[in-house]
Structures are given as structure tokens and as C-alpha cells.
Amino acid sequence: MSALYQLLYLRVPTHATVHENVTAAKILGMARAAPLVNAILRRTIRERDSLVQILDESEVGRYAYPPWWINEVKADWPGEWEPLLLAGNTRAPMTLRVNLTRMTRNAYQRELTAAGFSALDGSIAPTAIRLDRPCAVDHLPGFAAGWVSVQDEAAQLATPFLDPQPGMRVLDACSAPGGKTAHLLEYTEGNIQLDAVDNDPERLRRVHATIQRIGCGTARLIPADATCPEEFFTGDPYDRILLDAPCSGSGIVRRHPDIKITRTRTSVERAQTLQARLLEAIWPLLGVSGRLLYVTCSIFECENDRVIGSFIARHPDAVCEGFPDNRLAETKFGVASRTGRDECDGFYFARLQKSG
Residue limits of the SAM-dependent MTase RsmB/NOP-type domain (predicted)? Predict the structure, then answer.
């Protein structure tokens, strides 16, 4: 597949593509297949123009998504489906989150300029800076000292949307890899009682390393399944809960294009089931007047409004809160960022308050 892509769409010399891929077949122990690889690639070279025309005449070829994905986005975003699909094929920027306990965004911009970087302030998050080109994190001024973290601009909205206040008990229900966990501590200068739960101990070690690097307080890191609160809940209700739910990742496909291949309609349905289970499991842990923020990095309505709508129908004490003064697209129960329109990944946010 990679060889065909090179021949059809890249500027790699055709003879180099053929030679390297035939050689690769031999090295990988498939010497008997080498003549077939050679024949397919040479025929592709001869028929390239007609093949490209055939591909461009189909939606799958034109947009480079599986049919079910295209149909899903068409149904969910009838007025914006084409820009959304095309934006998912673009190169994502490297976006930073400034640790405002260390310095202002303007001050860090000056640090970047002095180090030879060019960057722009984010447009929807007050902590965001977009670099004009990506770089290794150890080249960023003050990264090791916790001045900044790498995080998409839409993801940076989760903490201010949750708006934890000093002294509150906060649960980060699916915390790894730790970007939002760290932001919760930065936002409150570490003055919260934070429980960070994840079912992968190895990924929790990454959360710990991130918390250590930013130096803004501590969290209780708990290797547990958030669908089983008996594994971690002490009995004291939480004032705030962040549920960054596992999802299809359809909103971050420009960063992880393999998602187009690894996700299926069935896997999305499994994600919906897990999202519903997580909401059911952690809702009882929230105190009266407390707030739960449901987040996905998906643009599929079935993982977003549909999950929240079903949950609200089952729980009369769950009240949707609005999102005043934001630039995101309003949905029935929340708001959503759109790749290509908001200069960030595709995220969904719904905010629920527990009534008395």
C-alpha cells in the first residue's frame, strides 16, 4: 500500500520505489513474492493516470476515508461534512499549553522568539500557542522545567469548562496520558484534592512524570477501572468530575491517520457502550450541585450528543449547563470544535450539573 501511494501521489522517483519495495519483500522473507510486487508496481506506473482518475471519481478515493466514515460525517454535519473530511487529511500544528503559574503567554512568546521560533497565540484557549513548525520537546524553552506542555488547543478547553475551584475534590476518571490532569493542577495551582484514575499502570507512570515536570501540586494516582468505582471511591463525593471518555478518535485523525483503518463501525458501537457504562458508574460519585464534564475527541454524534441525550433521559437529576462566551459550534447538549474551522482538533464537550 505504501508503495502504491508513493507511485500515485508522491514525488519519489519511480525506479527507487520499485527497487526499494522489491528489496524489502526479499528482506522480509517473501522473496517468492518479489516478482509479483515488481509486476504490480510497474503496471501501476504504466496506468497511473487512469488509476488516479478512477480514484478521484469515487468519494473513498477523493476523501481517503472508508465509506461508513464518510456517511457518518455526512449525516452528523450536513452543512460541513466536506471541509471536515478534507481537514482531517491536513498536517496538524504543534500546539503548546503555557503553564500560567510560571509565566504569561506573552512572556513565553518572548522566550520562543529569543530561541528562534515563530508562533501565534491560539484563538480559542487563553493558554495556547501554535508553533509554525514542530520540533522535539527538548528544544522548547523551559519544557523540562514545566513552563509548557504539548496539547491541542481544543483539549485545553476541558479544564476551564470544568472550572474546578480551590479546595474541591476532583476526579479525572480516565487520566492517561495526563495532559488534562496536569492542566487541572496548573489551573488551581495545585489547591485541589485530585484523584487520577486509569486502568493502565504503565500509562499512569507517564501521568506521574508529567505532574512531576510541571511542579504544580500532586494527585492520587489510582490504577483502576473507572467503570468499577468500588476499586477507588472512598465515599466522599466529588465536586467536579472530568470524564475524557475513550472514543473513536475521529476528531484527531489528522494526527493519527491509521485511525481510518483501525476503526470500524463495530468498534465505534463498542466505544458508545463503554461511554455509557462510564457515565453510569461515576455519576453516583458526584455530589449535589457538582459538575461533570464529558469530553471526547470524536466528531461522531453517536459518541457525543446521542450518549449524553440517552444518559439525561435516564437521570432526571442530570441537568445540561450551557457554554456561554465560547466560539465552538453548539450542539443539542454541548459544544464541538471542528478541524479546519477552529484551528484545532475535533472535540466534543457536554457539561452536566447534579440537581438536588
Answer: 84-355
What number is the average pLDDT over the span 200-218?
97
| Three-state secondary-structure class, residue 119 | strand
Instruction: Tell how strand 128-131 and strand 119-121 pair up.
Output: antiparallel
Residues 64 and 254: their CA atoms lie apart, in Å, by 12
156/125 Cα distance (integer angstroms): 6
343: left (phi over 0), alpha (psi -120 to 50) or beta: left
**Gap between the Cα atoms of 107 and 104, Å rounded:** 5
Domains (ranges, CATH) in the chain?
Answer: 2-57 (no CATH), 155-354 (3.40.50.150)
Q: What is the DSSP string of 157-202?
A: GHHHHH---TT-EEEETT-TT-HHHHHHHHHHTT-SEEEEEES-HH
pLDDT at 337: 97
0.70 surpassed by pTM:
yes
Phi then psi dihedrals of residue 277, to 5 deg? -65, -40
The answer to whether residue 247 is catalytic is no
Q: Which listed residue (297, 302, 320, 344) is catalytic?
A: 297
DSSP3 helix / strand / coil % (the chain, rounded to 5) = 45, 15, 40
